[in-house]
Write a structure and sequence with these properties.
Blueprint lengths: L5 E4 L5 E4 L1 H7 L1 E3 L5 E3 L10 E4 L2 E4 H10 L7 E4 L12 E4 L1 H10 L18 H10 L9 H8 L3 H8 L8
Antiparallel strand pairs: 1-2, 3-4, 5-6, 7-8
Helix pairs in contact: 5-6
Protein backbone atom coordinates (compact mmCIF):
# COMPACT_ATOMS: atom_id res chain seq x y z
CA UNK A 1 0.00 0.00 0.00
CA UNK A 2 1.43 3.41 -0.90
CA UNK A 3 2.75 5.63 1.85
CA UNK A 4 0.54 8.62 2.52
CA UNK A 5 2.11 11.46 4.47
CA UNK A 6 0.26 13.27 7.23
CA UNK A 7 1.10 16.80 8.20
CA UNK A 8 1.83 17.24 11.88
CA UNK A 9 3.43 20.04 13.90
CA UNK A 10 6.59 19.20 15.83
CA UNK A 11 7.84 20.73 19.09
CA UNK A 12 9.14 23.89 17.40
CA UNK A 13 6.27 24.42 14.99
CA UNK A 14 8.09 22.64 12.16
CA UNK A 15 5.97 20.46 9.91
CA UNK A 16 6.76 16.78 9.97
CA UNK A 17 5.53 14.20 7.53
CA UNK A 18 4.58 10.89 9.10
CA UNK A 19 4.08 7.95 6.73
CA UNK A 20 0.83 6.02 7.10
CA UNK A 21 2.56 2.83 8.32
CA UNK A 22 4.12 4.78 11.22
CA UNK A 23 0.81 6.52 12.01
CA UNK A 24 -0.78 3.07 12.06
CA UNK A 25 1.79 1.63 14.49
CA UNK A 26 1.53 4.50 16.98
CA UNK A 27 -2.25 4.01 17.18
CA UNK A 28 -1.99 0.33 18.20
CA UNK A 29 -1.72 -1.06 21.73
CA UNK A 30 -0.98 -4.76 22.09
CA UNK A 31 -2.93 -6.40 24.94
CA UNK A 32 -2.49 -9.70 26.77
CA UNK A 33 -5.28 -11.53 24.89
CA UNK A 34 -3.29 -11.15 21.67
CA UNK A 35 -5.44 -8.36 20.30
CA UNK A 36 -3.87 -5.22 18.92
CA UNK A 37 -6.34 -2.56 20.01
CA UNK A 38 -6.76 0.51 17.85
CA UNK A 39 -6.66 3.66 20.00
CA UNK A 40 -7.08 6.15 17.17
CA UNK A 41 -10.29 7.48 15.67
CA UNK A 42 -13.19 5.02 15.56
CA UNK A 43 -16.87 4.84 14.74
CA UNK A 44 -19.77 4.37 17.16
CA UNK A 45 -19.35 0.57 17.03
CA UNK A 46 -15.66 0.72 17.93
CA UNK A 47 -14.19 0.03 14.48
CA UNK A 48 -11.09 2.17 14.00
CA UNK A 49 -10.32 4.12 10.87
CA UNK A 50 -7.24 5.65 9.34
CA UNK A 51 -6.71 8.12 6.51
CA UNK A 52 -4.83 6.69 3.53
CA UNK A 53 -4.33 8.91 0.47
CA UNK A 54 -7.07 11.26 1.74
CA UNK A 55 -9.52 8.36 2.02
CA UNK A 56 -10.88 7.05 5.34
CA UNK A 57 -10.63 3.27 5.61
CA UNK A 58 -11.22 0.90 8.48
CA UNK A 59 -8.03 0.20 10.43
CA UNK A 60 -8.62 -3.56 10.45
CA UNK A 61 -8.98 -3.53 6.64
CA UNK A 62 -5.74 -1.54 6.36
CA UNK A 63 -4.00 -4.04 8.65
CA UNK A 64 -5.27 -6.98 6.59
CA UNK A 65 -4.20 -5.35 3.31
CA UNK A 66 -0.69 -4.59 4.57
CA UNK A 67 -0.25 -8.15 5.84
CA UNK A 68 -1.98 -10.25 3.18
CA UNK A 69 -2.61 -8.08 0.14
CA UNK A 70 -5.67 -6.57 -1.55
CA UNK A 71 -9.19 -7.39 -0.38
CA UNK A 72 -11.55 -8.48 -3.18
CA UNK A 73 -14.62 -6.33 -3.81
CA UNK A 74 -17.74 -7.15 -1.77
CA UNK A 75 -15.68 -9.17 0.73
CA UNK A 76 -15.53 -8.24 4.40
CA UNK A 77 -12.68 -8.51 6.87
CA UNK A 78 -14.00 -10.42 9.88
CA UNK A 79 -12.62 -10.74 13.42
CA UNK A 80 -11.92 -14.15 14.99
CA UNK A 81 -11.69 -12.40 18.37
CA UNK A 82 -14.98 -10.44 18.03
CA UNK A 83 -13.15 -7.29 19.12
CA UNK A 84 -13.98 -4.44 16.71
CA UNK A 85 -10.91 -2.46 17.87
CA UNK A 86 -8.53 -5.34 17.08
CA UNK A 87 -6.21 -4.86 14.10
CA UNK A 88 -4.01 -7.92 14.67
CA UNK A 89 -3.76 -9.56 11.22
CA UNK A 90 -3.68 -13.01 12.88
CA UNK A 91 -7.18 -12.29 14.22
CA UNK A 92 -8.59 -11.24 10.83
CA UNK A 93 -10.03 -13.30 8.00
CA UNK A 94 -12.02 -12.70 4.84
CA UNK A 95 -15.67 -13.60 4.42
CA UNK A 96 -18.96 -12.57 2.89
CA UNK A 97 -21.70 -10.69 4.67
CA UNK A 98 -23.47 -14.04 5.14
CA UNK A 99 -20.31 -15.51 6.71
CA UNK A 100 -20.29 -12.58 9.14
CA UNK A 101 -23.97 -13.14 10.06
CA UNK A 102 -23.42 -16.90 10.48
CA UNK A 103 -20.39 -16.22 12.69
CA UNK A 104 -22.47 -13.82 14.80
CA UNK A 105 -25.24 -16.39 15.28
CA UNK A 106 -22.82 -19.25 15.99
CA UNK A 107 -21.06 -17.22 18.69
CA UNK A 108 -24.34 -16.05 20.24
CA UNK A 109 -23.76 -12.35 19.57
CA UNK A 110 -27.13 -11.68 17.95
CA UNK A 111 -29.49 -10.08 20.41
CA UNK A 112 -33.10 -9.70 19.39
CA UNK A 113 -34.84 -6.96 21.32
CA UNK A 114 -38.57 -7.38 21.66
CA UNK A 115 -41.42 -6.05 23.71
CA UNK A 116 -40.74 -3.36 26.28
CA UNK A 117 -36.96 -3.71 25.76
CA UNK A 118 -37.41 -2.22 22.29
CA UNK A 119 -36.84 1.52 22.56
CA UNK A 120 -39.67 2.26 20.13
CA UNK A 121 -42.33 0.21 21.97
CA UNK A 122 -45.48 2.23 22.68
CA UNK A 123 -47.06 -0.37 24.94
CA UNK A 124 -46.13 -2.38 28.00
CA UNK A 125 -46.67 -6.12 28.34
CA UNK A 126 -49.45 -5.32 30.82
CA UNK A 127 -51.25 -3.19 28.21
CA UNK A 128 -50.86 -5.89 25.55
CA UNK A 129 -52.38 -8.46 27.91
CA UNK A 130 -55.21 -6.04 28.69
CA UNK A 131 -55.96 -5.55 24.98
CA UNK A 132 -56.08 -9.30 24.43
CA UNK A 133 -58.27 -9.90 27.49
CA UNK A 134 -60.76 -7.10 26.77
CA UNK A 135 -61.15 -7.49 23.01
CA UNK A 136 -64.66 -8.07 21.70
CA UNK A 137 -65.10 -7.89 17.90
CA UNK A 138 -66.93 -4.74 16.67
CA UNK A 139 -67.68 -3.63 20.24
CA UNK A 140 -67.94 0.17 20.71
CA UNK A 141 -65.69 0.13 23.81
CA UNK A 142 -63.69 -3.11 23.49
CA UNK A 143 -63.29 -3.31 19.70
CA UNK A 144 -60.16 -2.56 17.68
CA UNK A 145 -61.03 1.07 16.89
CA UNK A 146 -61.92 2.04 20.44
CA UNK A 147 -58.86 0.36 21.97
CA UNK A 148 -56.60 1.86 19.32
CA UNK A 149 -57.77 5.34 20.38
CA UNK A 150 -57.49 4.47 24.08
CA UNK A 151 -53.91 3.14 23.82
CA UNK A 152 -52.70 5.64 21.21
CA UNK A 153 -51.87 3.09 18.52
CA UNK A 154 -53.34 2.18 15.14
CA UNK A 155 -56.35 -0.10 14.66
CA UNK A 156 -54.23 -2.50 12.61
CA UNK A 157 -51.72 -2.71 15.43
CA UNK A 158 -54.49 -3.74 17.84
CA UNK A 159 -55.58 -6.38 15.33
CA UNK A 160 -51.99 -7.68 15.03
CA UNK A 161 -51.68 -7.87 18.84
CA UNK A 162 -54.95 -9.80 19.15
CA UNK A 163 -53.93 -12.20 16.36
CA UNK A 164 -50.47 -12.62 17.95
CA UNK A 165 -48.64 -11.27 14.94
CA UNK A 166 -47.12 -8.66 17.28
CA UNK A 167 -45.90 -9.26 20.83
CA UNK A 168 -45.70 -13.00 20.08
CA UNK A 169 -43.40 -13.61 23.03
CA UNK A 170 -46.21 -13.03 25.56
Amino acid sequence: MPVSPRTRRGNRGRLRLIPVDQRFRIQVVKIAEGCWNWIGAHDKDGYGWISVNKEQIYAHRYSYTVSYGPIPESVQVLHKCDNPRCVNPDHLFLGTHQDNMDDMLQKGRKRTVCGEENGTAKLTEEQVNEIRARYIPRHPIHGCNAMAREFGIGQMEVSRIINRKRWKHI
